Structures are given as C-alpha cells and as structure tokens.
Amino acid sequence: MALSDSVTTCLSLPVHYLICKVGFEKKDTYDINNILSENGEVCWQAVTEHVFYLESDRSVDYIESIRSLGPVCESVYLHFKSLTKEQFVIQYALWFHWTNCTELFLEIFDVLQYTQTTGVALGLMKLTSCLERALGDVYLLIGKDCPFLLRDLLASEQLAVVFGQAVMNVLRVFIGSPYGLNLRNVLWHGFASPKEIPAKYCAMLLFLTAGLGQLLQTYLLQNKCILVHRPYVIFVSLEELDIFPDLNHEAVSIAEELVNLSSFVLKTMIPFWMAALTAFKQSRYADCVILLLPQLEVGLRLLFTTTNKCPNRLLTAEMLAKHLDNEELNQLPAVLEEPAMEFLWDFLNHQEGPRIRDRLSHGEINLEAFPREVANQIVAFAITLLCRFSDEDMFAFKEHMVIKPLMNCASCYCSRFHPVPRLKKQVLECMKSIHLWPELPTVPEERVQTIKGLEGNTEASTLIFMISEILSQLHQYIPQNCCSSDDPINNVLTERLLIELCDIRISTLYSPRPVLEILVVLRKISTRCHQVSEQVIASTELRYKQWMNKTLRSRQRHNYLRMLSSIKFLSPVLRLILVLMTVELVNIHLVCKKNPSDYQQYLKFLKSVLQYTENLVTYTSPEKNKWDETLELTNKTLIKIKRMSDRKLMLMQLTT
C-alpha cells in the first residue's frame, strides 16, 4: 500500500494531542457574558485568567492554558453561531478596522456558520496572516524593523506596551509559539488535515482580534497617534512569472481526476486539493494558492521521506536542503530533477523572486488583488507533479493535449531569480543601452578631430590594441559563430555574443559561498556600467541640443567634443567588460576548484574592476564631465585585465 494511503495524520502525537484533545477535556459550559460586556467589549481580564504559568520560571503553561481556554472557545463559537450576519456586523465590524482587512474577518464569520472544514482551515490561514501584518503595523508605532517571525513579533516588548503582556500571552497560546496550538504554522506548512482543526479556535481568534481592536483604540486615543498601514507588496514584471500556458476548464477538470490517482497526494488532504482547484475555477486566486502551497509542501515531504527511506521524517522534513541531518546527500533533488527544483527555489525562496508563500503567510499581499497569472503557475506546476509521481500509469494523462504542454514547460525550466540569471539579464540590458550610442545625435566627425590634443591620440590607439589582445585570449571561450577576425572589436563585442553566452545553461542549485560572493561583485560592476551608459546617453543628447541651439560656452563646446571622442573608445571597453563577466559566469563553477589564495586574488581583481566602474560613474556624470581622466583610468584598468589574463588567473583559466 502506498504511503499516501496509509498516513492518517501529519501531526506528531504531542501536537495532535494539543490541537485535537486538550481543549476538549473540560466539559464545563462557559457563560459568554463572563468575557463579553453588555456594550460588546471583550473583558480581557476574564480571558487572561485562563492562562496558566509554570511555577519554575513563570513561563506560560501551554497545556493547562489550552485546557482551561477550551470551554471559553466553545462558548465564543456558539455565541457567533447564534448571531445573524447583521448582528455580527453591528457589534464587531468596527473593531476589525485596525487590521485593514475588515471584509475578510466578516467572511470568516460566514464560514463559521457552516461545517465546511476546508473553509475553517482557509479562514484561519487568512486570519493569521492578516493579523500578523496588522500587529506588525502596531509594532511600528513604537519600534523599528518589524520582526519577520510571528513568534518574535508576539514576544516583543513593543506589543506588550500597547496591549499588555497578559494579552500577548493569550495570543501565544493560539499562534506563534511551538509549544502552544501553533495554528498558523501547523496550517501553513500543511501538517493539519481539514478535520484536525476545530472551528472553535478559529472563532476564538476572530473574537480576540476584535478585542485587540478595542485595546488599540484606547492606546491610540491616550497617546494621540494614528496607526499607519504599510503598503502591500505588488508583483511587478508578471511576464517574468509567465512559464506555463494559461489553464482552461478542461485542464483543471483533469487535475481533479489526477488528485484522486496521484501518490503525491495524501488521501487525508484530498479535500484541500479539491477546494484549491474549485477556488481557481471561481477566480478566487489567493484562496487557491493559500490552499495549494501547503499541499505542495506535504507532497514534497512525502516524496522526500520515500526517496530518502526515512518515513519518520514526514512530520519534520526540510525537503529542499542539500544534505540530511546525518550529512548524507538528500536524494529528493535527483528525483525531482533540476528544473523542478529551480522552479521551487524561484517561486518560494530566492530573494528577488515572488516568494509567494512568505508574502502570503505574512500578510504582505492584498488578497483581493492576487493575480491570476501567479495562481496559474502554481496550479500548473502542481499538475505536473501529480502526473510525474504516481503508482498509476499516467501515460495517457501526460500525453493529453492540455497536459503535455505543461509537462514540456516544466521539464525545460531554468531559474529566473537566482543571482546567475539576474546577472545575465543585467548584462543584456546594459549591452542594449551601449548599443544605442552610435545612434545618438552628434556633430560632424571633422569637428571632433579639430580639437587640439585629440588628433592622433596614442592613448586611444593603445586602448584599442589592448582590447584586441584580450579578445584574442578569449577566443577559445567564444562561440564559433560569434568569432570574426575582421574588426574583432565591433564584430565580436556584440549583443549577439552575449545572448549566445547567456543561453548556456548554468546550474544554480546550492551555489557555494565563493560563487555567491563573486556574483555580488559582478552584479555591482554590471549596474555601474549601465549607469555610465545611461549618463553618456543623457549627456550626449543634452549637449547636442545645446550645441544646435548655440547655448554652449567655449569651454563647454570643447568639453563636449572631448566627450564625443572619448566615448568612441569607452564603448568597446564597457562591452569587453560585459563579455568578460559573462564568460566568467558561464565558467563560474570553476570557482570551487581553486585554492584560497587564488580565489582571494581573483576577488581582489574583480573589486578593482568594480572600483574602476564606480569612478567612471563619477567622471561621466553631468556634474564632473572628466573625459581625459576617464581615458587615463580606462587605460590603467585594461592593463590590469591584460595582466590577469596573461597570468591565467582569470576564472575560466584557473584549471588549465
């Protein structure tokens, strides 16, 4: 029998006991009027009396607190079920305004009126993320740099000042502490099945959120301050997230069939998968992704434990790590294969990627405006995993006309948000900018040549000679179709060459620290080169306009002509640096093979090139316009590059 069939819970025994048992041990009927005043305010003192503390260190006794709060939660749940929507809105809506998500909390009230278990779990995930975001806004009334982790936020002095420590301890019983119910983490990481989360805990958190709103209003009035909400994160450049074809109704229907057949899905979790696909069909894209991400994590944990033969790790596994706890190699990446691993790292982990789970679970995204494009990618990727990992024969599904394109896209995916592809994107954009220089408006060439000191410039000739020499040493690393003996500078240092080099696939998984250090420097160099190019373009256009309007003084005219002469030689130098960087990038795996002294010397060299580009930014700025100094500095840097190349200490030559 497949493991996906035999697993009945992903909760460890202690966690299962806390969530499913402890809060039901006391059978008392609790009077709601004990914690709710006649005017509708939460009586916090009565609530905090149910939090118990250990005698040893006065820390929260979570088991006793959960046991005592169990009947209170049940009372709140029954109270909400006794209210009409109109009564709930009148009594509580005002107290949710501080969250900036009033409508969401009103929707959760609707969920509590029914016994749909996936709805309760979804409501709790949305509630905890929005509550965390709102608490972070409150934290910033007093503190700076809001903690990233919910447990650190709830334990902060800043929130204790606003709400009181006893109130924060009540919250920590439900969320934020691994010793409490820890509802947020249990749900967001896919440990709980739909039937394992009692609705009364969702009701209690809804109630507590309203109570926090009442306490906050008092604090704001007393301290004469206003709560400011941080802006939501907006997904920009959605085209970069466009990997899979748009899913139609037929594709989603097939996905529903696959859920029931695939061994990637735990049988206890099938309702979550179905609810996610239903949400997608109903254009509830945030709900779809919130439901689906934890299930992807469950499926990957299941695959991890099967692949590494460690079924006991189903409750704890860190699936994407390179090594297991015993330092053995994690076999999951080999089974998933590099394209799938890169997709997961891109969408979930890389700092410049969308980091969808982080941003959703921490309340950073406006749920009502969640883009279909992002949900489409997650659902499509999930479908490919359902197809790939199954005990059943999935050939017919994989070859289906709406599924096959998804499988093809998944199999050839390359990272887009690791520093390697980000650098590729930077150098291509920079080269595009430099290629605009010849098209810039300019005065006749003979006017440039009449400037004293520029005619027969030996320094410029030296620059061209050195560039040609360096290019000849790069010959073996340049694709044959991009080589040219006829005017190599203009025919080799081209956008076409960079595109060819950037098309070479580079493994990005588990990049070692030296590689990441080098990438940081290379990206800074690329950024500075682009900045220089943009300054040259802006200055050239402005000076030409002033020249034509005859508004330049004599010295400015002279400087303008010097600039035109200088940029003719600066262009190939910048293009050479971009090509060198890209060749280095293609061979960056060699960085792990050199000894520490060679690595440090190479890194020092790169930093000297970075210093050169930083100085260029200054010299080519409209305020400085130091073109003679630019050529002099460029000459010195090319000598360094040539020297490094001669010594065979460039990255791609280290193993020759």
TrEMBL record:
Signal peptide location: none
Pfam families linked to this entry: DUF4209
Domain DUF4209: 131-211
Protein name: DUF4209 domain-containing protein
Organism: Melopsittacus undulatus
